[in-house]
Amino acid sequence: MAADLRRFFELYAYQGVDTPVLENLDLFLRKSGDEMIARMYSFTHWNRKLCLRPEFTASVMRAYVNGMQERPLPLRLHYAGPTFRYEKPQRGRSRQFTQVGVETIGASGALADAELLQLACGALESVGLRGYRLVVGHLGAVLQLLEQLGISPHGQTLILGTLEHLARRGAEPKAVTERIVALLGHGGETRDAASAGDAAPLGDLVARLGAEEATRLAQGLLTLGGLPLDGGSRSAEEIVGRLLEKARRVDPARPVATAIEFIGRLHRLGGPPESALPELRSLMEEYRLDTAPLDEIRRALEVFACYGTQPDEVVIDLSLGRGLRYYTGLVFEIYQDGAEGPLQLCGGGRYDDLVRSLGGRESIPACGFSFGLERVDLALSEAKPPPPDRPAADVLVAPLDEADVPAAIGAAEALRREGVRVELEVRPRGVRAALRRADRAGIPSVALLGERERAQGEVVFRQMGARTEERMPLAQLAVRLRAER
Ligand code: HAM
To answer: Lowest-pLDDT range, 101-105, 210-214, 480-484?
Structure first.
């Protein structure tokens, strides 16, 4: 199956690349996100921090930075191999699994994004999968809002890390907000949204006045209000200094709450492109965000439609986070909705900053995706009716008596040499016992060998289903059995 998928990628001019199973831990600490980091198998060997690769993208980009920067762009690469994540094993989720995927380095825009969608959907169709669901998102909306709200890089990472929990695992927005605010060092200070917002203008004012002027103003106001600043262990200057410091530190509760609420609204507006794109546009305009991400999705889907590949359903969901921290633009996932729940077969997207952050000479746009091979296998087997149980043997060769055993073994071996699967009756107890054994084991035919057959180089061939019996030379039996398979 991996070979079939890779052959499909080669039709689109992708070339194979190999990366090591054992990697530098550092490579994945930079841009993977907390969730992935928590799932890595990592250890120290002779003072070097190593890990089993949890995915390919960072490794392929490192390989590009180390040895392929001279190659003409765009560079199209495909790969396959074992990956490892410490997770609770369950249906379609194991600690060692196989990823098969591609990375396109040095191409941006709708054509490149559409080619990626085509490679993912087309490859699945090429191995016989139908009825899958394509979910398309874009990190642009959430990233823009986080910047606009002035949320720190650490805060942004925490929020992006919760996208998956909020949108797909039903996490409670209030609890998520409180946890993030606490992690940002404002635990216990989470005020309600209205009062939390008052801190931001105050912080701005202090910054604009400068320390000296702000101190003078604060002291003047406190004196005017008749609030005593003396008598304690701290000087008046110290008390005012601390108050100003606190005012300068913007309480993240309000912006974090705004971001979490926005993500919830994005998710609720998700749906087919025709209805979701206009509604998402209105929402982004309400938050004064650039709607370019929606244009990028629309254009990529228009180009993708030219390939004629047919997902059962296409859904837009701008709250799609993908759980990895390096994505910057269009992202997507492919699901198969089986009786036992949805199975994510593939995930990927655009990550235009990764090359630079891994030490590349310049920023290079890039995108890619990976399949979970075992999940693709599982989806294919769940989609097909289960094959009827095939018996282990095509024929039971049954000696009727101990004296018939050498001839029966000879006959069985002769049939096996012809590729016939043979069970030898090892308890020669007569015709009825042999037929009972074949019946119970579902073996479709029996070759009975007694004294008379032995003497004439024949067998009695019985077909269990038709209940027919005929005598035939041993040499003819193999031809007959092969024809019936
Ligand atoms: P990912 O979504 O973390 O993305 O993994 C890709 C695929 O691997 C998933 O869609 C799923 O089918 C499969 N998978 C993940 N975890 C497991 C597991 N525990 N057991 C079985 N299958 C699993 C990435 O890894 C990105 N590197 C994809 C990418 C490539 N993005 C850009 N380029």
So the answer is: 210-214
Top mutation candidate among 55, 336, 345, 377 for ligand 1, by most atoms within 8 Å of CB? 55
Which pLDDT tens digit goes with each residue over 64-101? 999 999 999 999 999 999 999 999 999 999 999 999 99
Q: Would you say residue 189 has pLDDT above 60?
A: no
**Global pTM value:** 0.74
For the CA of 103, the closest atom of ligand 1 is 33
- Residue 370 Cα to ligand 1 midpoint, Å, equals 6
Q: For 298-356, how does the pLDDT look when each residue is reduced to its tens digit (9 = 90+)?
A: 999 999 999 999 899 999 999 998 888 899 999 999 999 988 889 999 999 999 999 99
**Position 425 pLDDT exceeds 60:** yes
Residue-averaged pLDDT of the chain:
89
Residues with CB under 6 A from ligand 1: 55-57, 85, 87, 92-94, 97, 99, 101, 103, 324, 344-349, 368-372, 374-375
Which among 61, 90, 375, 376 is the best mutation to test ligand 1's pocket, defined by most ligand atoms within 8 Å of the CB? 375
The 330-338 sheet, strands edge to edge: 15-16, 75-84, 96-105, 366-372, 341-350, 330-338, 132-138, 313-316
∠ Cα 150 196 270 (to 5°)? 60
Predicted local distance difference test score (pLDDT) of residue 249: 61
Ligand 1 geometric centre to CA of 256 (Å): 28
Ligand 1 center from residue 68 Cα (angstroms):
24
Between the CA of 438 and the centroid of ligand 1 the distance, in Å, is 46
Atom of ligand 1 nearest to the CA of 334: 10
pLDDT at position 50: 96
